[in-house]
Amino acid sequence: MATKNSSVTEFILAGLTDQPGLRIPLFFLFLGFYMVTVMGNLGLIMLIGLNSHLHTPMYFFLFNLSLIDFCYSTTITPKMLMSFISKKNIILHSGCMTQLFFFCFFVVSESFILSAMAYDRYVAICNPLVYMVTMSPQVCFLLLLGVYGMGFAGAMAHTGSIMSLTFCAGNLVNHFMCDILPLLELSCNSTYVNELVVFIVVAIDIGMPIVTIFISYALILSSILHIRSTDGRSKAFSTCSSHMIVVCLFFGSGAFMYLKPPSILPLDQGKVSSLFYTIVVPMLNPLIYSLRNKDVKIAMFLMRDFNFSVFSPSLLLKENFKSLSECLVQI
């Protein structure tokens, strides 16, 4: 339902481009991105859920990161794909507010889950002897509760701020989704307070995780520099490298979009830059953690061998006989 003071009951999403020749190629390009995102994140979720060796605090948070990325991408991409194949991509006012709420919920939750993962790496590297005590299931659950609690609070603040606006006539949203800044442009009343709310909430939702991550990695770096062995240092760096890449991609693109005034970054350019953290980052996260994480790669190989053995009993019998023969030779 539209707000009481608004005459707009539906919006038209302008999409990514208005050039007909680019629509079909872009449709298949982003459809491919979405399929990779879904398969990558669901695959990582299943891998962590089914492999008992990955039931640790680190992979508990990675499981939730993949879940957030999957839901995050599903909130945005299907509706964006419709803009490439339909003449008018219409979304109801209630649907627009719903998409905005879930978009804000998942993007804020992702920022805080990344900070929780940084804290987890700090404890693992700086206090390894008390790691399992410090990162107990109860602590992990409380951290996760805080992650989704901040996501819900941020989503309510942004959505409530937008729902308080009055939309009189214009209903063309210059974006491929119901985002905050394009909707502010359509309001026919003053948006100064709403822009202030957006800036404050975004500063908190980006600032708090960044400070937590910065402090965690400063302490991690200090601890690594005190490690004498080269192997120990490289192992510690490799443990954190995947997470640092994801943090830079996500926070860099998000801060570039929302912490700059619209006069510096026009919406047409912001629309393109927002593709990075809404489409590309959720697709890259499972690839980064899969390709740069030894435990995940081992679990993938074990899962593959297990599935192959289940469907090939003769091969399994052959491998067992080979192992038995090797043992007898050694005896």
The succession of helices and strands, N to C, reads EHHEHHHEHHHHHH
Order of adjacent strands in the largest pleated sheet: 2-1-3
Strands, total number? 3
Percent of residues in beta strands: under 5%
Short description:
This protein is 77% helix and 3% strand. The protein has helices at residues 20-50, 57-85, 93-126, 131-134, 137-163, 180-186, 192-225, 230-258, 267-291, 294-310, 313-330; strands at residues 10-13, 89-92, 172-173.
Structure description:
It is a single chain. The chain has 11 helices and 3 strands. With 331 residues, it is mostly helical. The protein has a 3-stranded mixed β-sheet with strand order 2-1-3. It starts with 9 loop residues before the first strand and ends with a helix.
Task: Quickly list its features.
globular, 331 residues, 3-stranded mixed β-sheet, 11 helices, 77% helix, 3 strands, mainly alpha, single chain
